[in-house]
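Priority: low. Protein: Formate transporter. Input follows.
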Amino acid sequence: MSYIVPSEFVSKMVDAGESKIFMATRDALIRAYMAGAILALSAVFAVTVTVQTGSPILGAALFPVGFCILYLMGFDLLTGVFVLTPLALFEKRPGVTLKGILRHWGLIFIGNFLGALTVALLMAIVFTYGFATPPSKVGEVISHIGENRTLGYKEYGAAGMLTIFVRGMLCNWMVSLGVVGAMISTTVGGKVIAMWMPIMLFFAMGFEHSVVNMFLFPSALIMGGKFSIMDYLLWNELPTVLGNLIGGISMTGLTLYTTHLKTGPRRSYN
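Result:
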């Protein structure tokens, strides 16, 4: 698999974060748009497999195919840049500022959302034969996902909000490990295996991924889901984004950076 040791791939993480911050606006938007669209298609695929087979674990096992494709193509997810770009600031790379990082996050959010929304519209046409029929079985399932993961949380108030946030943290702990996985091998096979494992875990466990949700919830609303845009934003997307940010940078970015790049002094044997 041509494995790269942590001390080397963490340096690659910092370099990647720095390069993304200075990326042209056009390139950032295109890469984010394609990432959102491909991940949305992967979510459709996973739900379709689950409906056809009655096996959610099989859908989860196959969902990572989209994640692997988009990272092999060099596209960007919001959850990935949450982890990589702050490392360039921690490392005090020249010209890297908090303002630049926030600007880049904003561009990736917009691009991811537009890509996911495009697929939501296209798949709604597919699921309803151009809005001439009620949604297919897969479309119905997606609509219920939207309802259950907005109104279902809202029903529990503050406890529901906490649950969304924690699920968002746990999600990007795993997803960010998948992002790192793309850097720990010099072969396609090695990269795919390293990315596949944590992505399958997050999907199977039902954690909350902000970009996947950019497809699921607008798609559900288009096909008649019984919740509002404000329900989606307040009771899923915004707390999920915050959870993804905190989970990714604290549980993956900072831990790898601290122990492999800013290694503590060796213990004395005296």
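The chain has one domain: 6-260. The mean pLDDT is 96.
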